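Need tokens for this chain, all 748 residues.
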Amino acid sequence: MLKLVTTIHSSFINSPWCSYKIVTMNSQIQLVTQQAFLNGNLDQVSTILNQFLQDESDNAGIVFGLGIAYAKANKFDESIFIFDILQAYTKNDERVFYNIGLIRALQGNHESALENYQLALKIKPNDYEIFINIASSYIDIKNYSLALNSLDKAIQLRPDITEAWSNKGIALNHLGLYQESLDAYGEAIKLNPNNYEAWSNKSAPLMKLKLFKDALEACETALILRSNYAEGWVNKGAALHELKQYEEAITCYDRALFYKPDYFLALSNKGSSLNKLNRLGEAITCYEKALSINSSMDWAYGDLLHMKRKIFFTQNFKDELKILEGSLSSNQKVIAPFEFLSWSDDPSLQKKASEIFVNEKYPLSDQLGPLKKYLPKDKIRIGYFSADFKHHPVAFLTAELFELHNRSRFETYAFSLSEADDEMRGRLLGAFDHFINVDSQSDIQIARLARKLEIDIAIDLSGFTADSRTAIFSYRAAPVQVNWLGYPGTMGTDYIDYIIADETLIPPKSQRFFTEKIVYLPNTYQPNDRKRLVSDRRFTRRELGLPENAFVFCCFNNNFKITPTTFSSWMRILKAVQNSVLWLIQDNPLVVKNLKQEAINCGVDERRLFFAERSVLSEHLARHRQADLFLDTLPYNAHTTSSDALWAGVPVLTLIGQSFSGRVAASLLNAIGLPELVTTTQQEYEELAIQLASNPQKLLDIKNKLAEKRLSAPLFDTPLFAKNLEAAYFKMYERYQANLKPQDLVID
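Here are the structure tokens for all 748 residues:
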């Protein structure tokens, strides 16, 4: 997960210690106290200093200087001990409390730092430096509103202090006030054009406003001013990453590491860019090193584990899962919600992961103010928000639905969160009444636009998946906001009103695991596109590298969905079914190596594993014809890949789980009239796979049933699905217009 650096530029960075202007150090006192500290004899230190202060009451500055000397040497405990003694002899000297506050802040004890700063303010209420340092502590503990309040007071006292304006930019950025943050950085830079930290920090709100080129220029200016500024190199790398210039971003992170070898943020960001380039081995190494330096980095452990899952590096799976479960239970920011779906089938922990993530990164914002009541319209305005209006599984499922919406009752808007230029994008441009590319707009700008257009129901098709923009909904983009299709779980926040599901996905006992109200569609929650083409190309097994006469089990799920438990189950099935093979998708070379090694560990010949490279959808569907049975994964089922297999005529065998993501394949099988392929235990799953592979007639009967149901069952009846979904929209809209709160809805 990419991270930016904002350096808190405060008075204790520039001039660390507030001291007496003239201090004559007594070297004898220094030597004696130093030896006493080394011996751990605090009583002796106290005796020496108290005796000196009693005899030399006018020379408290000597002891004061001694305290500062220890602080500068990073001997903070000794320094605090000395300043505590000084308090009895310098009753009205704010510098004692000021310096204690600085030390406590450097130690990370901001509560104590703030207490001492307040004591200093009581003595000297108009000291702008104290206010700046108070704000710095508030920024460190993420209380940005109080930080802003202190900075405003500092600026009232001294409007010409660049550090105050720069720190104000940090606070405003974290409060989501990005333009105001830019204005503050502008003031800081106006006061001191050479403030390289302000230039670098300015890139943070520019990035939030999607002004990546401007962010890059700001970082380059910072680096012209100070070429060895590691934080500036990290921020430049982050801007290049967002511009999809990953190689260049890695070069910047390497420069940061040259100047600061143990810079964990540079390492983790480098890992993120390497991950984008599918250089997973190198990415994992970067994350491991970053975590060895700072084990408490937010979300980094989960990022690392997700990359390991992509290459099936799962030797410590059980131990890692226990760590994740324990961390989530104690509200730690350990893993993003999407990454956790492939780890655990526990819906309560999935909910916890979402709540922790959304509360930290996308809390409810009141910046746009309350949403006014929209008057009833002739047509309900539906806004679909997605980064996937392109060649993507979400588009493959929804394209025909968008085309079939009843234009006499609905006005449809696509808010595209990403640029694209492919065949699917061309089709979708004509599927909506309005197609709006908002890729370059900030989250708050998009929410403001949705309000201006009076969108009645906003549908988030991305959730927590790649390139999602959850913050749009935190501003309340529409009076009714819905989580559907893209993310198979709860968003964990009250500002998403509904989740669209079905009775298989969320049985009544599971409703408590969702912060949204449940909208139950009949049959299934998933739409399909009947225009999805299966290529006429007739692949042969030889052409695909498969053995001619083998029974071919397949699973075309993403590799990260394969758990050790699932893979071990597949190996037991292969052992039981002679002349059978397993056909998987290949996401990277390392996963092939690791899966083959795990097959050997399970006592299975690695040559029974075959890997398909990704191809265009129509040909991918066509090559399904050479598979006999699709084996599903748990806890993260095949979703679009289940529909692909069923559409291509391949039966899907699933093991139903407890969570939404682990029940999708069951939902689809029920909707196409094949509930007999839904198993409830690992043993039943394996036994049925073996039976179907060993009994050609039984499998043929199921294939014939699938062929019969394919164009008649609800799963692929897109007009019926559109009708049901529109009925759900009407019920949501009616409740809103009647001033009724969202509630669970059942569509008959």
